[in-house]
Amino acid sequence: MDGMRIGRGAMLATLALALAACSSETGALVILSAPDHPQVATVEIILASADPANITAVTGQRVDETTDQPETVRYFRQRATTGPVKVGGDLDGFRFHVEPNSAVAPDAELVPFAIARAPADANDPAGQILAIGIAHDPTASDPGPVSITIDPDALQVFQVDVEAASATSASVAAQQVDEIACTSSGATTPSGIVWRPASGPELRLLLPLASGGAGEDATTRPLDLDCDGHAPIGSGADCDDLASDVFPGAAETCDGRDTNCDGQPTVFETCATPAGAGSDCSGIAVCNGGSAGACQPDLSCAGTAADAECDITLDVSALPCAPAVGDLALPECSNGSGCTIRVLQSDGVWEATVAAQPQGPFGPTAMTHNGQFSLEVEPMATLPAAQAGPAGQVFLAIQQAAGGVLRYLPVALDYTPGDSCTLQDGGPLDQMACTAK
Q1: Which of 193, 237, 266, 429 is 20 to 30 A (C-alpha) from 31?
Q2: Once rounded to an integer, what is the mean pLDDT over residues 330-350?
């Protein structure tokens, strides 16, 4: 008789969803151990692929937006499932008998996830997840899931350890779970389950989607849990695969979040063209306490007034070119409370960073307590041989220690080349003379 046999004690039933096609003396007997005795309505065994190609450890994933500390998380992909099976009480001791069926789940090794739910209601048609379980190897140092064997010749017994899990829609802490759904053409589809067990890293279980999956098999779908079109691995990796509005190149607003994966909280947002700035440019507003400040002309606006000027003389006889460093003084930041200097934009072929002192270290922000700071500009492409003149601008924001914006500081760059110059690592340090107005 085809089917997966399940039961508690001596009671057995046949599940209509076929995952088996042989006698009851072969395959795997999965026994759920739930010492906390959770009372659940249903339980489902999701069998994930044990193929190493379908288990991915992803580094650099943001799991908590409040700390922005990246972690390594593990992805698994559904291969088959029992579907929800009625329990209606204590989950401890519940058993699943999985028999081989190459037509449905041809893999001999599969990783089981036991998903136990509360009764369905109008707010949660599937029922809220109350507990999750995985199989462990008690002799291994890794507390993560291990596979079970669907033996075609003998019956093997495996224990799945179940622990309580509370639902969350924020960062997933220990023994918490979040269900991720994707919306397309007005329809919402479950995409995956995110769970952090009592010990070990965060686990992410990909479920099949109508687009990219095949029936119960999620091994063919993209590695993209939030369905934003950006995978968490490779070039341009998605730093937060649980938020569809976070990916490299995403627009940012003054909400305190890093939505474009540059590692920095939002420090400015674009705004409507400032009055009198012309129609050929846009505006920029520095974030201040979670809201946008006044809209100022950005560097695309012709005639944007510069409050400081830096003159660069590139010594092209001493190639390769190196970053140019200049010092600036801000009297309003010399009162001891300090200011934070932030690089907002740069134009031309320049990359700009700041530091509290000429020796660095340089980065997108710097703190000064005496009003002194250093600006480093680095040519990111070949500089053309031309007469001395404007070379671009850098747009800075000067913020009080408490976060208030003191002012914007557009810095004009002028350089005097004697020949073309291509940036390379190393080489002498070219100085630039900077004056704040």
Answers
A1: 193
A2: 78
Rg for the chain, CA atoms, rounded:
29
Which residue's entry shows tokens 């081989």? 100
Residue with tokens 């509290």: 356
Q: Tens digit of pLDDT for each residue in 188-229?
A: 889 999 999 999 999 999 999 865 445 688 999 999 999 999
How many CB atoms sit inside 10 A of residue 23's CB?
10
Q: For 186-197, write each residue's pLDDT tens digit.
A: 788 899 999 999
Q: Are residues 65 and 257 in contact, defined by beta-carbon separation less than 8 angstroms?
A: yes
- Which among 387, 390, 357 is positioned nearest to 375, based on CA atoms? 357
Q: How far apart are CA 89 and CA 309, in angstroms?
A: 74
Nearest in space to 347 (alpha carbons), one of 298, 314, 299 = 299
- Secondary-structure breakdown of the chain: helix, strand, coil percentages, each rounded to the nearest 5: 0, 45, 50
Which tokens go with 285?
Answer: 């507003």
For residues 372 and 334, what is the distance between their CA atoms, to the nearest angstrom?
8
Task: Kindly give the residue spans of alpha helices, DSSP state H, lying in 230-318.
Answer: none
Q: How many C-beta neighbours within 10 Å does residue 409 have?
A: 21
Distance CA 419, CA 384 (A): 7
Q: Cα 172 from chain centroid?
A: 13
Beta strands per DSSP E along 68-144: 70-81, 85-90, 95-98, 109-117, 129-134
- The total of other beta-carbon atoms located within 10 Å of residue 202's CB is 23
Cα first-last separation, the chain = 87
Most confident of the following: 99-108, 300-309, 380-389, 395-404: 99-108
Provide the token pair at 319: 């190639």
Mean pLDDT of 341-353: 79
> Which amino acid is residue 341, in one-letter code?
I
Q: Which helix (H) or strand (E) holds 97?
A: strand 95-98
Q: Name 276's Cβ contacts closer than 8 Å, sequence gap at least 6.
A: none
State how far the alpha carbon of 329 is from the alpha carbons of 60, 257, 332, 347, in Å. Answer: 37, 30, 9, 22
Strands 13-15 and 95-98: what pairing?
Answer: unpaired
Burial 235-273 (b: 16+ CB within 10 A, else e): eebbbbbbbbebbeebebbbeebbbbbeeebbbbbebeb
Q: Which amino acid is at 14?
A: T
d(CA 268, CA 397) in angstroms, rounded, equals: 9
* Beta-carbon count within 10 A of 381 CB: 10
**pTM, entire model:** 0.70
Helix (H, G, I), strand (E, B) or coil at 316: helix
